[in-house]
Amino acid sequence: MSQEIRVVLFDLGNVLVDFDYSLSAKRILNFCNKKPQELFDFFFTSELILLFEEGKITPEEFFNKVKEALGLKISYEAFVPIWNEIFFLSAKNRAVYSLANRLRSRYQVVLLSNINILHFEYLKKSFPVFNVFHRTFTSCELGLIKPNPLIYRKVLEVLNVSADSVFYTDDRPELIKSASELGIQAFTFQGINKLKDDLLSVGVTF
User: Fold this and answer.
1) How far is 22 from 126, CA to CA, in rounded Å?
2) Pairing of the two strands 7-10 and 135-138
3) How many CB atoms lie within 10 A of CB 50?
4) By three-state DSSP, how is residue 73 classified?
5) What are the residue ranges spanned by the domains of the chain?
6) 40: Cβ contacts below 8 Å, ≥ 6 apart
7) Which of 92, 75, 83, 81 is nearest to 39 (CA)?
């Protein structure tokens, strides 16, 4: 029999805050000779982005590598807001935040996000969603990135809880799969109604 849920673990992007990398890619088109799809692929899938999200390179190093790779004609100061201004709140995000706020009196409400330091600092200043969490874990601070099992193990260790006492929601199925293999009760996020059903299915009340 599974442990009673003690921790409700949320992903950030496309769960509590939506984002669209194409917003940044479109603006950067003005400063290089790449095609829109090339820029989108670069920002979403390149090894450089993963290094930045793992905190392995500084914002300045990241910018210099982006500038070199894309042939950008832009300053660091001009680049940062273009890079950061990809986030927005939807009705879905607000519903998840409201639910998390209801859960926090009964459970540890925790965030685990793959995110780079520029985006994280920008979001903390611009989007009032972090106050709902008892703890916040980010890839750039831990030096690990989902779906690496070590990042989930680190969270369990710091929280001092067993895997099966954690409910986890994330919009990316491959990240859910990795967490599930450790015994975490993990569910793919597919909207607020599905999230409520998933929580109820493991005994979480709200």
Assistant:
1) 20
2) unpaired
3) 14
4) coil
5) 7-17+90-201, 21-85
6) 21, 22, 25
7) 83
Residues 118 and 53: their CA atoms lie apart, in Å, by: 10
- Look up the pTM and report it: 0.95
Close Cβ partners of 100 (under 8 Å, ≥ 6 residues apart): 8, 10, 16, 109, 132, 133
Superfamily of 7-17+90-201 according to CATH: HAD superfamily/HAD-like (3.40.50.1000)
Token pair belonging to 125: 């200043």
How do residues 50-98 score in pLDDT, each as one tens digit? Answer: 999 999 999 999 999 999 999 999 999 999 999 999 999 999 999 999 9
CATH code assigned to 21-85: 1.10.150
Closest by CA to 17, choosing from 99, 101, 130, 155, is 130
